[in-house]
Write a structure and sequence with these properties.
This protein has 1 helix and 4 strands, in the order ββββα. It is mainly alpha-helical and about 140 residues long.
């Protein structure tokens, strides 16, 4: 930071001397005793540019922090959604297992039905053969 004390007397502007020192941020305070106004302006621009640079850095960091907070919010939502999907997958896997068991049972019923149909066809053929023998032999 840069501070200049100005004292006006007799229609002239005099610059009072400031001690050379550094503030807590490390910015040098310039001795303005021998400086003309243009030089003083140049010395005041440097801290201003530094402050503007710091402001831009802080704004970037703030935007980055905001972005990270949004990402954390999205991550939390996605984790919750993932948990729901995992539960849903578990339920669907249970349903799939139950349906596979039912398919197996139905396949067994079909197999038994096919065997019974073959037995029925064999019984019909036997009856027809016996009827022919009885019809021919009578």
């Amino acid at each position: 930071m840069f501070f200049t004390l100005i004292h006006k007397s007799n229609e002239k502007t005099k610059f009072l001397q400031e001690e050379d020192m550094q503030n807590e941020e490390g910015t040098e305070v310039v001795n303005t005793k021998n400086l003309n106004p243009n030089t003083e302006i140049e010395h005041s621009r440097s801290p201003i540019k530094e402050l503007e640079s710091r402001i831009l850095t802080l704004v970037r960091k703030l935007l980055e922090l905001h972005s990270l907070k949004e990402k954390l919010s999205c991550i939390a939502y996605l984790q919750k959604d993932l948990t729901c999907k995992i539960v849903e997958i578990g339920k669907l896997n249970f349903i799939i297992s139950a349906l596979k068991a039912e398919i197996k049972d139905l396949q067994e019923i079909i197999r038994q039905g096919n065997m019974e149909m073959k037995q029925l066809d064999m019984a019909k053929q036997l009856i027809e053969e016996l009827q022919r023998k009885n019809g021919n032999g009578s």
